[in-house]
Write a structure and sequence with these properties.
single chain, 605 residues, alpha/beta, Rossmann fold, six-stranded parallel beta sheet, five-stranded mixed beta sheet, 20 helices, 18 strands, 49% helix, disordered N terminus
Length: 605
């Protein structure tokens, strides 16, 4: 703010009056424009007088906490009014009188219910001018050092929330975490309040003479401070005390100035205010401005509540909190955490990778899981394919062997039996003309006739095994009935057969397929299962034709039989699947076997 000195409000420039007025809250405007019919209670009026300005740190944090806490806890409306003393320079009697005249003109009709000051200059002005300004109105001093508060003349009903800043404790904490420090550069401004704190720092730092050297930057502008701090040796630290106005007369917002100094600094920066933790300072014992503001709001509630006045002024002293450090700054300056005072709080700990990248990690894990599942499925499919290929090769070899064996068996039967018997008949026929005795000739003819009949039956049986012509002649149902009767006569098992009338239309490959499946199932039941009862049925089902063969034999494990690539079972399955059907085998040891083969009504393309 620029300095202005005038004698009376009437001669104040308009912009100066506005600067003194500060900010009038929207709550006052709303209250003035509200319809009278609503009859809301008049708000309690609280006038805040700033020493420097509403936005000047560290006092702005105190007032922000005070306003929000008081508004939240008050049972009635509160109207906040603000004005700034502009104590960036010494305030003479004339300027104090002008400011007092402005306050009377602006805020005495009606007068405030409570007047609150921030920092020492506003407290001293208010105490000296209260009778001329707001006689009988209680005052509340905030954000004021306890030594200054003790020198302000307070009356019964007044209160103060004072702070006790332990500068020696702050200096000792810096040297504890950085014991090799030889230089402490102190950032401080030029206002009367800042000169007070410079003198206090000199007094507290006198005990450290010989151990460290203090470099005072109060005679420099902010830009010159940056240059000076950038050139500090490595065994130095910066103590950011108070910077309201620099030596060039330029006011500064505290956190913005801290950011400028931090960009230039090659050494750690320390401070004592809570609002600067996380803004680039290392830490240490700190003063909680929010705690000061909340305590001031609690006292204001008691004052505004209208209770009996205290017989003596109420003074609450807020000391410095326990030490707290910014973990990021500790790591930046490689400060060992073991050097911190016991009970220190570590703030701004970087989140774990899981917390910081949780969504990304979940997505990555899902992708990896999906890829792993896909790879596992591919490996399983590959193993199944190799097993199927091996079974196919094994089965193919067995089929070739079986085909060759069957060919050799038929060849042996033709050569060793049929051919020899035909040769015998041929010899007998050649002998027949030479027989003259009628009895011998008749016997020879009867022998030849019997042998030819036997040969006919055996060749027919051999042809039936190669292809049952009865299927083409009589149909599937009759062929199955004949096969069941033939096997029932040969073995001990009782065989029943049941067929629907619609099965007569089944011909060709599908009829042969079901006949061969039935033959294999019956042969297995009679030869391997030692069954005593076998039930065979064929009927329409699910738009196709279904064959069922069930026995009460010893049963088997279909999975184990499939692993061994049983030739009979494999042949049954391949026949059915070749025509687009399905084969189901249900069997357990000691529980019999049920074979179900289904073929579609139309032949597979």
């Amino acid at each position: 703010m620029h300095r202005a000195s005038v004698a009376a409000v009437a001669r104040l420039p308009r912009r100066r009056v506005l600067r003194f007025a500060g900010a009038v809250p929207a709550a006052m405007l709303v209250a003035g424009l509200a319809p009278r019919a609503r009859a809301q209670p008049a708000p309690r009026r609280v006038l805040i007088i700033h020493s420097f300005g509403r936005s000047i740190a560290p006092y702005n944090t105190v007032i922000a906490a005070f306003r929000s806490e008081l508004a939240a806890r008050s049972g009635e409306p509160v109207a906040f009014m603000e004005a700034a003393l502009d104590a960036t320079h010494p305030i003479g009697p004339d300027e104090q009188a002008s400011f007092a005249a402005y306050l009377r003109a602006r805020f005495t009709h009606p007068p405030p219910d409570l007047v609150v000051s921030t920092a020492g200059p506003a407290a001293q002005f208010l105490a000296s001018q209260r009778d001329a300004l707001f006689p009988g109105v209680p005052i509340l001093l905030t954000a004021i050092d306890v030594r200054i508060a003790e020198r302000v003349a307070l009356r019964p009903g007044d209160a103060a929330v004072a702070v006790r800043i332990d500068l020696r404790r702050a200096l000792d904490a810096m040297l504890r975490v950085l014991p090799h420090t030889r230089t402490i550069a102190v950032v401080i401004g030029t206002t009367p309040l800042e000169r007070f704190w410079r003198d206090e720092l000199r007094r507290e730092g006198a005990a450290l003479a010989g151990r460290v050297e203090f470099v005072w930057l109060d005679e420099l502008s902010l830009e010159q401070m940056q240059v000076r701090i950038a050139a500090l040796p490595a065994d130095s630290v910066v103590f950011y005390a108070l910077l309201v106005v620099d030596a060039a007369g330029v006011p500064h917002e505290r956190l913005e100035a801290l950011a400028e100094l931090r960009r230039a600094a090659q050494v750690p920066i320390f401070s004592i205010f809570e609002s600067e933790l996380g803004q680039g300072v290392v830490g240490g014992p700190y003063l909680s401005q929010r705690r000061v503001g909340r305590e001031a709001a609690a006292i204001a509630l008691r004052i505004l509540g209208g209770g009996a006045r205290q017989p003596a002024p109420e003074i609450v002293v807020i000391g410095m909190d326990t030490t707290a450090y910014d973990l990021r700054e500790l790591r930046r300056w490689r400060i060992d955490e073991s050097r911190l005072p016991p009970g220190s709080e570590l703030l701004f700990r970087p989140p774990s990778p899981w917390v910081e990248y949780r969504q990304e990690l979940i997505a990555l894990a899902a992708v990896i899981a999906a890829q792993a599942a896909l790879i596992a499925a591919l490996l399983v499919q590959r193993a199944r394919r190799r097993r199927a290929e091996q079974q196919a090769r094994t089965l193919g070899g067995r089929l070739i062997t079986a085909y060759d064996d069957e060919g050799r068996r038929i060849a042996r039967e033709l050569h060793d039996d049929v051919t020899q018997r035909l040769a015998g008949v041929s010899i007998e026929l050649a002998t027949l003309p030479r027989l003259t005795e009628p009895g011998a000739r008749a016997a020879m003819e009867q022998s030849i006739s019997g042998e030819l009949a036997s040969l006919s039956r055996d060749v027919h049986a051999l042809a039936y095994r190669l292809h049952p012509s009865v299927i083409d002649d009589l149909g599937l149902a009759e062929a199955l009935r004949i096969e069941c009767g033939r096997l029932a006569r040969r073995g001990p098992a009782a065989i029943t057969f049941d067929a629907g009338a619609e099965t007569d239309a089944v011909r060709g490959e599908r009829a042969l397929c079901l006949f061969r499946v039935a033959q294999e199932a019956l042969r297995n039941a009679a030869r391997h299962a030692r069954a005593t009862r076998i039930d065979v049925g064929v009927r329409s089902a699910d738009g196709g034709i279904e064959l069922r063969v069930a026995d009460d034999g010893c049963g088997f494990d279909p999975a184990a039989a499939r692993e061994r690539a049983s030739l009979g079972l494999a042949s049954m399955r391949e026949r059915v699947e070749l025509l687009g059907g399905r084969l189901e085998i249900d069997s357990r040891s000691g529980a019999g076997t049920r074979v179900a083969a289904w073929l579609p009504a139309q032949e597979a393309a």
